[in-house]
Amino acid sequence: MKIVFYTGPQCSLCDLAELELSKTAMYSALDIEKVNIRNDANLYHLYGARIPVLKRADNNREIGWPFDSSTLEIFLQ
Asked: Domains, the chain, ranges and CATH?
């Protein structure tokens, strides 16, 4: 499953989100694309106050911080 991970430079919450994501059972099967929102004005406008955000490419569902590995397991089903 492809996941777009909207992040930014020096984002400590993004580091925590990545740690929670790594705890999920599906982690090894995920294709994670990290996207720095500061490289795109539209993405910065959409996600600047919300990062970290994970977006499923298959259904466009999003989950924003805060979340834990249990919540992510449900999101990834």
From this structure: 2-76 (3.40.30.10)
